[in-house]
Backbone:
């Protein structure tokens, strides 16, 4: 999809759900072996794009949707047989289309985010699956979830668009799930605490990327240098363990460089090695907790102040919003199947719906004044209702009346956040100095 505004909701849906391309891709992947009652584009559109609801997904609800929305009645076993590994590949293809579209339409960053190529929130969510799948997706809670999978994601922080994803077992370490390559140059990553790995931070730093994350209690680095000088007889921090240096300190902000142990594994003919690398550590005093909130970053002090680092890290909650909308209204929840390929298909289908909804939100938000914004949870509720008749007309080849076709402006108005005096972090971070309230 182009970065420019797509004029109508119908045009948007046709660009992301191209019926003829889906049919051609289905034939090439072996989804369609012969001419059958069920059209591949109809199956994909109804089961993957259209079916969603609060809580877990239901295969029975998908089968009913085929009958009610596409006019195709199938026996339970017949419908089940169509959710094949080849169909999973077709869902993969559509998800990759959406990811590629998001990567091509990067926003222009301003304010404190000016100069970054992209700002990515990194996190994961756990979804319980049937206990019989414990050999495929081992859980970490034997009493409540012997089997559980984890969905790792890279989500664009200011828009909620999905950029990268991976499905692993719950027991799989977060910091090993998603690689950081040379494509990450000049990208700012906002890592969750589960990604507390100095080796991961160093890989992002080595390729020219930037990161901000919370410092966990497992790290006890030593202060190497002080970035923020204080007048008078200020306590010297250099050369002391960080936690010891902060004990009893009364400064509102601490800005220092600390040494972290980085381990690089052997690769090819290169031997593994371990060395110390300095990263910037920021402490912002929290009067409620009466303790410092500690952040680690490689963004230099002249580019981002301590207060700005703490504010920018709040953008990571956009990925939490992504998961909340996915589980509350788009079917990313408990999965009713014992077949691994069907479970993966249902997870990817939910990611397709979430990606589609967030890309549509970006289109709708362009119709609002610059001082207004859309509430993501409200948008999902509006979007689900709005697209059903449009998708139904798309797969059945029928037309809907002009007055029944929603516009971007009408959808944006319905989903507009009423809290105009409490702008979201994503809006504040993009404002130029002097423009914020």
Residues:
């Amino acid at each position: 999809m182009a970065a420019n505004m797509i004029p109508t909701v119908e045009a948007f849906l046709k660009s992301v759900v191209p019926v003829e391309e889906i049919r051609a891709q289905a034939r090439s992947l072996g989804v369609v072996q012969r001419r059958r009652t069920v059209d591949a584009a109809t199956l994909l559109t109804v089961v993957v794009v259209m079916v969603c609801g609060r809580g877990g997904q239901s295969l029975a609800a998908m089968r009913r949707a085929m009958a009610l929305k596409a006019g195709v009645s199938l026996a339970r076993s017949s419908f089940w047989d169509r959710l094949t590994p080849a169909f999973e590949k077709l869902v993969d293809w559509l998800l990759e289309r959406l990811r590629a579209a998001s990567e091509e339409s990067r926003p222009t960053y301003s304010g404190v985010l000016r100069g970054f190529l992209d700002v990515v929130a990194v996190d994961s969510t756990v979804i319980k699956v049937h206990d019989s799948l414990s050999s495929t997706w081992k859980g970490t809670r034997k009493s409540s979830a012997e089997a559980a999978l984890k969905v790792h994601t890279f989500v664009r922080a200011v828009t909620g668009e999905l950029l990268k994803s991976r499905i692993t077992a719950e027991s799989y370490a977060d910091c090993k799930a998603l690689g950081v390559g040379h494509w990450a140059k000049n990208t700012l990553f906002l890592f969750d605490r589960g990604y507390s790995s100095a080796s991961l931070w160093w890989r992002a730093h080595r390729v020219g990327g930037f990161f901000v994350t919370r410092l966990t209690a497992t790290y006890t680095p030593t202060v190497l240098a002080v970035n923020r000088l204080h007048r008078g007889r200020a306590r010297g921090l250099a050369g002391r363990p960080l936690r010891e240096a902060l004990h009893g300190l009364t400064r509102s902000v601490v800005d220092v460089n600390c040494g972290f142990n980085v381990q690089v594994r052997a690769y090819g003919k290169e031997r593994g090695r371990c060395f110390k690398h300095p990263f910037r550590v920021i402490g912002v005093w929290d009067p409620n907790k009466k303790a410092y909130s500690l952040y680690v970053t490689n963004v230099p002090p002249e580019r981002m102040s301590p207060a700005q680092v703490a504010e920018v890290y709040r953008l990571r909650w956009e990925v939490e919003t992504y998961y909340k909308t996915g589980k509350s209204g788009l079917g990313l929840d408990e999965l009713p199947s014992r077949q691994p390929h069907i479970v993966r298909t249902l997870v990817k289908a939910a990611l397709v719906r979430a990606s589609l909804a967030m890309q549509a939100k970006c289109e709708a938000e362009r119709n609002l004044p610059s001082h207004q914004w859309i509430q993501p949870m409200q948008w999902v509720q509006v979007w689900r209702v709005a697209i059903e008749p449009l998708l139904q007309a798309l797969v059945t080849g029928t037309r809907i009346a002009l007055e029944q076709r929603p516009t971007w402006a009408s959808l944006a108005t319905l989903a507009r956040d009423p809290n105009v005096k409490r702008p979201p972090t994503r809006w504040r971070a993009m404002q130029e100095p002097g423009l914020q309230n």
Observations:
- The chain has a mean pLDDT of 85.
- The beta strands are 118-128, 138-141, 145-156, 162-169, 187-191, 210-214, 222-226, 253-264, 273-286, 291-297.
